[in-house]
């Protein structure tokens, strides 16, 4: 295996109300809204990106918030739970903050780590874990100090309808290494410091169905365009049929659905989110690809207004 992904590039999920989505991920979790654009295939729907101060790979969760979306059901063929990593000693801060906002929390343990588990307002399953690894976030918002801020992804829990074949893809196509088994999960590790630990349910999970509160796809990192082309060939050699390479403005992407039903993407680290906005002004304007610019007035008229705003988290 010559190619090995560094880990998760981004995770993309469905939501309904765009302002509630911004309130939760920017206002409560303190992530930075680094890009406000549209679904290129459905321009009446936002595509919102939340991450660290620069939207670095391994920190970005993205949403298609569509008010008419049905409610989804988490299950097989999906990311079952998205894991965020926080600094050592920050768990108590987050327990207090989530309680302050009326969010139900629970705890779990696996592989010798404690997880704080909760869901967003749509039912998307999330968890926090403390780890030393990963660069501290420099983004601070509404009472969240940088010493407690989310660094990025810790990893993800995958629910597969065919766990053995999903694990085969992780190991023999993406180059992850199996590192252990615990409480019904099998853990794989990528080469990066964040977004690098993937836990697969050892038991097959009944199919879920897409909709608000579920993940659409998980994307893995390719370091550049040259390696991206190599990844496409590796996916083909692994017996899968990837899409052509697509320009997503802030990265290049290819997609394939692995045998356990999960939609995988491989995305390039460059060019990043500062290609069309100043780094100090990321996410402030609605950014459109050039082919939509002639229709800007129509596109904007079809979108609900949103803003990043304080929710009073400084009281925590």
**Percent strand:** 25-35%
Q: What's the average pLDDT?
A: 97
CATH hierarchy class name: Alpha Beta
CATH topology: 2,3-Dihydroxybiphenyl 1,2-Dioxygenase, domain 1
**CATH architecture name:** Roll
As a percent range, the share of helical residues equals 10-25%
Specify the structural class.
Answer: alpha+beta
CATH superfamily: 2,3-Dihydroxybiphenyl 1,2-Dioxygenase, domain 1
One letter per element, helices H and strands E, the order comes to: EHEEEEHEEEEHEEEEHEEEH
Number of domains: 1
Q: Radius of gyration, rounded?
A: 18 Å
> Reading side by side through the largest sheet, how are the strands ordered?
2-3-4-1-13-16-15-14
Ends distance: 48 Å
Shape: globular
Number of strands: 16
Low-confidence stretches: none
How would you characterize the largest beta sheet?
Answer: 8 strands, mixed
- The helix tally amounts to 5
Can you walk through the features of this model?
The chain is of the alpha+beta class. It has one domain: 2,3-Dihydroxybiphenyl 1,2-Dioxygenase, domain 1 (Roll), CATH 3.10.180.10. Helices cover 16% and strands 34% of the residues. It contains five helices and 16 strands. It has helices spanning 18-28, 91-100, 163-172, 225-237, 296-301; strands at 8-15, 32-39, 42-51, 60-65, 78-86, 106-110, 113-119, 125-130, 152-159, 177-182, 185-189, 197-201, 215-222, 246-247, 251-257, 263-271. It has an eight-stranded mixed beta sheet. The protein has an eight-stranded mixed beta sheet with strand order 6-7-8-5-9-12-11-10, with helices on one face. Strand 14 (246-247) and strand 15 form a beta hairpin. It is globular, with a radius of gyration of 18 Å. The protein starts with 7 loop residues before the first strand and ends in a 15-residue tail after the last helix. The relative contact order is 0.22. The mean pLDDT is 97.
């Amino acid at each position: 295996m010559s190619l090995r992904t560094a880990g998760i590039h981004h995770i993309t999920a469905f939501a309904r109300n765009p302002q509630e989505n911004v309130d939760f991920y920017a206002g409560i979790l303190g992530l930075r809204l680094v890009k406000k654009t549209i679904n290129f295939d459905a321009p009446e729907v936002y595509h919102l990106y939340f991450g660290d101060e620069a939207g670095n790979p391994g920190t970005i969760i993205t949403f298609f918030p569509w008010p008419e979306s049905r409610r989804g059901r988490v299950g097989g063929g999906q990311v079952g739970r998205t894991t965020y990593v926080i600094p050592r000693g920050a768990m108590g801060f987050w327990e207090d903050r989530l309680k302050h906002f009326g969010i139900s929390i629970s705890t779990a343990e696996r592989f010798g780590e404690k997880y704080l588990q909760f869901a967003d307002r749509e039912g998307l399953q999330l968890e926090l874990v403390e780890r030393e690894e990963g660069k501290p976030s420099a983004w601070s918002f509404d009472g969240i100090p940088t010493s407690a801020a989310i660094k990025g992804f810790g990893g993800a829990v995958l629910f597969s309808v065919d766990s053995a074949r999903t694990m085969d893809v992780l190991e023999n196509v993406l180059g992850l290494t199996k590192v252990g088994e615990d409480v019904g999960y099998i853990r794989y590790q990528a080469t990066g410091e964040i977004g690098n630990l993937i836990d697969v349910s050892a038991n097959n999970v009944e199919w879920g169905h897409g909709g608000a509160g579920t993940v659409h796809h998980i994307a893995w990192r390719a370091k550049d365009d040259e390696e991206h082309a190599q990844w496409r060939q590796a996916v083909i050699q692994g017996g899968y049929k990837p899409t052509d390479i697509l320009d997503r403005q802030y990265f290049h992407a290819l997609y394939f659905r692995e045998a356990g039903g999960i939609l995988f993407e491989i995305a390039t680290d460059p060019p990043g989110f500062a290609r069309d906005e100043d780094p100090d002004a990321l996410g402030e304007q609605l950014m459109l690809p050039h082919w939509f610019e002639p229709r800007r007035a129509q596109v904007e008229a079809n979108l609900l207004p949103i803003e990043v705003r304080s929710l009073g988290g400084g009281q925590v």
